[in-house]
Specification:
This protein is an alpha+beta fold. It is about 30% helix and about 25% strand. The protein has 2 helices and 8 strands. β4 and β5 form a beta hairpin. It is rod-shaped and about 120 Å long.
């Protein structure tokens, strides 16, 4: 019984000593310093996360990568684009119309573009007709004479997801 009582008194004394140690002024200062260090490290982590986000950019929309300007490992000056994107809604059918056929072409008019390897035509709406005549471009895929004056015309495909690729030769028919 006495041994049990003496053991419990020793436990109480040890707990009181620990409590007094915890109440010492230096301990509170060490805890404050540790809290400030944790806050500083959290701020540094947040700053590094922000810096990483500044080096990364997501495309604003799904698009075809038209051109890659810089590759991995190359230095990119601030504010410069890394790739050139072509969203599907910006794909245009560009063709040239001889001067004699120009009266049949008007904004809002309908055309059909045919592409090798694709069944059926891609319907499109004329969105631009040049006001200037120009000589036939040196590389143009048409059956007409290349010596006549032509007018550049652009049309927007009805289906933005149509399998048309920039620079792809095509045959256009006015509706």
């Amino acid at each position: 019984f006495r041994a049990d009582r003496d053991g419990r008194r020793a436990d109480v004394a040890a707990l009181q000593a620990e409590l007094e140690t915890a109440r010492l002024g230096g301990r509170e200062g060490a805890l404050d310093a540790a809290r400030r260090e944790v806050a500083a490290l959290a701020a540094a982590l947040e700053e590094r996360a922000w810096a990483l986000d500044q080096k990364r950019a997501d495309a604003p929309t799904d698009a075809l990568v038209q051109d890659t300007i810089y590759r991995v490992g190359e230095y990119v000056p601030a504010g410069r684009p890394v790739v050139s994107l072509l969203p599907p809604e910006n794909v245009r059918v560009r063709f040239y119309v001889p001067q004699a056929q120009l009266p049949a072409v008007a904004l809002g008019g309908r055309v059909e573009a045919r592409v090798d390897g694709r069944d059926g035509a891609v319907p499109a709406t004329i969105s631009f007709v040049s006001t200037r005549a120009e000589y036939t471009p040196p590389v143009i895929y048409s059956r007409e004479s290349r010596a006549k004056l032509v007018f550049r015309v652009e049309a927007v495909p009805d289906d933005a997801g149509a399998a048309l690729h920039p620079g792809q030769p095509l045959e256009v028919r006015l509706r």
